[in-house]
Design a protein that fits this description.
The protein has nine helices and twelve strands. It is α/β, with parallel strands linked by helices. The protein is globular, with a radius of gyration of 18 Å. 38% of the residues are buried. The site of 2'-deoxyguanosine-5'-triphosphate has 11 residues, from helix 1. The site of magnesium ion has 3 residues, from helix 1.
Amino acid sequence: RLIKGEVVLKNVTFGYVPGKVVLKNINVTAKPGQKIAFVGSTGAGKTTITNLINRFYEIDEGEILIDGINIKNIKKDSLRSNIAMVLQDTHLFSGTVRENIRYGRLDATDEEVIEAAKIACAHSFIERLPQGYDTVLEGDGANLSQGERQLLNIARAAISKAPILILDEATSSVDTRTEKYIERGMDQLMKNRTTFVIAHRLSTVRNADLIIVLEHGEIIEQGTHEELLALGGRYYQLYTG
Ligand code: DGT
Ligand code: MG
């Protein structure tokens, strides 16, 4: 059983199709509970790294270890239940709002569902739905806005006990006011979990323990926000725009 949430990528090289390398010799160590941010231009390979941690694809070279175990030796079900995700493209199923938040936590009480929704700033819009938490979502949440769908995914991550969390543009469709409001909830979500965060808005990654700058599938800089600003390189360029 995985519990610590240490994630190590060792010399990882990967391409979706033969002959086209997308990630080259990536080394990352995330200690349990750390917040690691990936930044870099579109197409740099940020989402691909998280796809590999989830083992959606097999890597070509190197290895990925969780709590010291090669993920090839971890059952997919177990991997799924140890990694919570909030992505730009939301994943909801046809079922009630409550069921969608609860997801893998079938033991979760109604109180826990509400608490998770509050962390995600979703409680108030859910209460305004025709049947509240019992409102049935159409396939993939077609009867909600894109931002509302993301908030439900955040609530689902909040109720999950997964020690590893992936946030890939997790609040990209949420308006700026709600995004400000949700910041504390996001901090609560990341608390005690190893978190990989990808965000174009660099203000949301400043407080990461480690920021990794990717370009064309390679790590070109890494450090804290202050270290990278002092370096005056790519991160500095991205940050000062
Ligand atoms: P973003 O989200 O636009 O900021 O960009 P990243 O950094 O998340 O980029 P990523 O990892 O989605 O894509 C890296 C490269 O891999 C890019 O050249 C597109 C390619 N790629 C991504 N997903 C797939 C896929 O499913 N199949 C193939 N063949 N290529 C893909
Ligand atoms: Mg991406």
